[in-house]
Amino acid sequence: MQHSSIHWFRKGLRLHDNPALLAAATDCCRLHPLFILNPSSSQAGTNAWRFLLNALRDLDESLQEMGSRLFMVQGCPEEVFPHLFHAWGTTRLTFKVDTEPSARQRDATVAKLAERHGVEVIQEVSHTLYDTERVLALNDGKAPLTYKGLQSLLASLGPPEKPAPTLTLEHLQGCHTPCQVSHDTEYGVPTLEEMGQDPTEVGPHLYPGRETAALARLNALTDRTAWLCGFKKPETEPTSLSPSTTVLSPYLKFGCLSVHTFWWWLDEVYQGREHSQHPVSLHGQLLWREFFYTAGAGIPNFDRMVGNPICLQVDWDNNPQHLRAWREGQTGYPFIGTIMTQLRTEGWIHHLARHAVACFLTRGDLWISWEEGLKVFEELLLDADWSLNASNWLWLSGSAFFHRYFHIYSPVAFSKKTDRDRAYIRKYLPVLKDFPAKYIYEPWKASRAVQEQAGCLVGTHYPQPIVEHGAVSKRNLGRMKVARAQKGNKSPKRH
Length: 495
Prior knowledge:
Blueprint: E1 3-9, H1 19-25, E2 28-37, H2 46-64, E3 71-74, H3 77-88, E4 92-96, H4 101-116, E5 120-124, H5 132-138, H6 147-155, H7 183-187, H8 211-219, H9 225-230, H10 249-253, H11 259-270, H12 282-298, H13 320-327, H14 334-346, H15 351-364, H16 370-380, H17 386-396, H18 413-418, H19 423-428, H20 448-454, H21 469-485
Parallel strand pairs: 1-2, 1-4, 2-3, 4-5
Helix pairs in contact: 3-4, 5-12, 12-17, 16-17
């Protein structure tokens, strides 16, 4: 049978290692590559929207090289598909497996709709190294709560599958994509303005959203074999002006880069060479990603405190003013402000920088719920992935996974340790650039004369600290001890 296929692109915005796309092209006479934009389901900010739209344009250009096109449709998938099934005479729908609870519910609904319309549905695992459902089944339906626990389960499954072949013209022989002259008008990729975003709010275009950019970034690492083999995540620099890690996370999040491709590319690099080991190696980082995806798939209410069985129940404070100051980089602590400024403008920050600002917002200083921080990261990060974002906030707030809650990042001491030449702060907070190095991370300690000479009066041009770190961190440590002693409370009140 020759099928009329729809391949539904979601996060797998690529032609390489896309088994669901290959399934759509098999025994296919008519192919509609589809992306459904549903703005109401996204909390992404302008930088992330730019990344997505650029990735979609790149995907459309790659499809055009093979005589096909990308069809962009706006709306709710459950409402869009019945119309498309009828209009396009669809007999087969393919898409990659998504592990997020809301996405699984959506996909189950779409699959039932397809069945009612006589449309075959094919789902393929490609966004994770392993099938999370299979991993959960090995553990009696429960998510492993330790990295070693996950490793033990994966050992029984063997190495991840090799990447699927890249889609080529050969795969599309005899397969036609119907396109009208009006295609760009009816199905073209929209602009930022058309998506209700202000293009003047985007930051520097450091990480272009494209499959071609993802592969180029990966291939650029080929000449850094020693660095790849010696990579240890905790030893990378959070304040380096050029990233000290790969910055492939946005490309993995949107699926511009296949995690299987990255894994086996690294495996070739490692062959015959000494290299770092799990969990700090690059392979180890991909398994951390797998760990968090599995947790997100197997733990109810994973992105919230209430109803989350692994989450510490904490009486967090409700302080909108402090939350706003943190988000806007106006806490009066330059290191925190520098990180949040970089995040807001560029859409990416180093993992240790994420640690510092997350600790400051939650258990370290402001005692504000990690759920509020999660929302801000979801908006501002290019790599804001539902499972990873929730996992990291649970971890960094001391709510789950991480039990060394007494380890608190000092917004002053940590910054002095990691940004010794003060170049990081001078780049992102130029209002403080003329302060002597002695005071740049504690400008409130500088005399009035020093502040005047630097052209920045604390309290006028730059805010006073909104809390006193030494006092509040000590108080919050006590509050965390109380919360842990009362572990098991199910309905904490909110202040």
